[in-house]
């Protein structure tokens, strides 16, 4: 379902499609929905980065501002300004690259100033959840540095996500596809080559709970846009909502969504994702290996030699 492709980053190129790449998330924030500020301290964040890499992460994705539903990210009265975002982010980024100069680091930001500072410090990728819509200057910075980019589809701003009208399946797919196509056009207008771009459907970003399942089921249709896909379903609210009957009618908390995250992640791989963005790296690496073997029709599995007794 997915084709081999190459993703051109700032200083190197990654092959996509032969196996699923795992992007480990480290949130350097006090208010992340998934880890509750566990890694706001730079030393704790750096330890977590090393753990992710030891567990098999191909890419680290560092974020220093929460874009959870209801936040003011992307608005004029944003709570986390670029200076504060960089103060959280840069010590961790620099610490990772000092310890492991060849690590591939992505920065989750929609601010041009932060993207520039991170790329100057050695980041390879800018992961813009707004798809270059909240700060168009990010596209110019990425073009200047030759960075790899992840362009996500986001429907509205986080503070309005819970009130989005429900869309029927065809309208939903058209909305996501058209939004990603617009981001692609903005990237190319800024001088970013298609080979630098990966697309993210934006699970949970302005989608109603059930819409995420529609999108996951039809995700492969987005491959018609011509670029590889990244799926970030880990610990998302729609998973917790689905698990509510198992938690006395209450949405499962973030730290209880890991098995559901693996199930959704595997579905995303089988529906064409080349990269998965996850919080728990080792289980995702193992699940991705199985999903890749299914993709290959079992050819990737070799029987172990019989053990003599």
How is the secondary structure organized here?
Layout: E1 5-8, E2 13-16, E3 21-27, H1 42-54, E4 59-63, H2 82-99, E5 105-108, H3 112-121, E6 125-128, H4 137-145, E7 148-152, H5 169-189, E8 197-200, H6 209-217, E9 229-231, H7 237-242, H8 258-270, E10 273-278, H9 281-295
What can be said about this structure in brief?
The chain is α/β, with parallel strands linked by helices and 309 residues long.
Can you walk me through this structure?
With 309 residues, the chain is of the alpha/beta class. The protein has one domain (5-295): Dihydropteroate synthase-like (TIM Barrel, Alpha-Beta Barrel). Helix content is 37%, strand content 15%. The protein contains nine helices and ten strands. It has an eight-stranded parallel beta sheet with strand order 8-7-6-5-4-3-10-9. Strand 5, helix 3 and strand 6 (125-128) form a beta-alpha-beta unit. The model is unreliable at 300-309 (pLDDT under 50).
Per CATH, the superfamily is Dihydropteroate synthase-like
Helices, by number, come to 9
- The radius of gyration over CA amounts to 19 Å
Question: What general outline do the C-alpha atoms trace?
Answer: globular
Summary keywords:
two-stranded antiparallel sheet; 37% helix; eight-stranded parallel sheet; 309 residues; alpha/beta; globular; TIM Barrel
